[in-house]
């Protein structure tokens, strides 16, 4: 049996919790409410069998709660507690279908007796009505599922044209927006953890409660669907006339606040640009997802609207460079079959997945980087059944932006591959290694040195210089200088930076030396090259 306790005094909640041996009796307190409004919402959400409520409370008193329960035909039995013995309260309570009325201070034996009788009656009623209730529940769940499947076909898969959608919607009694509407994607963060902690792993109950909260917040006439391909994603089709963006932002913030208050979860919400025709539903859904994924993974943003800029990280270079380094090390291992310091790759992977890095990346950026990394592992082949399972776990984690799930799966795949690699494996050939070295130089050309490269790839400097020239066809210094000069030429052509700024940007602290090197490389001074390049462009 499920109980809801309603009283504005915390001491009453504590007394009732300790007074009755709930667990021994097989009973459960599913919620505590401290005013009538909160009790009404929790009753809708948690569907308690028995409600124990005070009479006098803020917002909505016990008699008002009884009246609401009576009007909505809520099946719970209500036991009223009050410090008032006035007959008018008692009479009004019983008129509103109160099961019993007890005076404070609460007496354990009296309360236990009343609760016992209420439980017995509920069990008898349940036995006589269970078949009918189950049938109705199955039919309702089936209808909701058909609504969600229709949405999946129309918005996610884009399989229905406008006429087909209208016909199918009419068959399922769905009133599609007839005019201007905005598509809103609502993603519940850390849903799995919340389901385990607060719902005992009961995903169905959690999703049912989440849908109800969203529906009540946006209005009963507003269409709410669940994306069946995602763990905890709902989609709202919000009809509206011409209104400023501030109005939409305010409504979305109310939705976020309601979820945090009643579900105790965090939301990320993305909204599309307004659309006039339902035929644009698939495009609107894609826009809402794009807005959702434009927000930083670890940032404070909760609402984003397509076409309206959200706050971005102050420094995007570091996280991108971190992922590039992981890719470089992985290429080295997969391409050559050797990696002298295996822990380095795993450390760099964990660094790329760290909270500090994630806080500077949008979901779109992170999914692109993680997908590229996983594709390399998958393309390498040689996967047994366990590895295939980890690949699926990683793909799911990336798709749902579950960063920890993706990290664990990718780490497991890497560790497995590193373990299987023979410690005596030799490099396949020098060219493969030098290609990886070139990638590193291309990324770090501004400040890379010969010592850096030799140390990072665990090679003697003389051996490295010889191998690099024989493989690439020019010396390390020649290659690095040419690379810097090419970047300098691009900056001279495409920017208004001063010569000394360009020199510093490409790795030269001395402007005069930079100018000498540039003139030797191109036959012109930097200023002459800029003028020449722009004349050619005209």
TrEMBL record:
Residue ranges of domain HTH araC/xylS-type in the record: 435-532
Pfam families: GGDEF_2 (PF17853), HTH_18 (PF12833), Response_reg (PF00072)
Keyword Transcription listed: yes
Sites of 4-aspartylphosphate modification: 54
Subcellular location per the Swiss-Prot or TrEMBL entry: Cytoplasm
Keywords associated with the record: Cytoplasm, DNA-binding, Phosphoprotein, Transcription, Transcription regulation, Two-component regulatory system
Domain Response regulatory residue range list: 2-119
InterPro entries: CdaR_GGDEF, CheY-like_superfamily, Homeodomain-like_sf, HptR, HTH_AraC, Sig_transdc_resp-reg_receiver, Tscrpt_reg_AraC-type_HTH
Record's protein name: Response regulator
Organism: Paenibacillus terricola
Top-level taxonomy: Bacteria, Bacillati, Bacillota, Bacilli, Bacillales
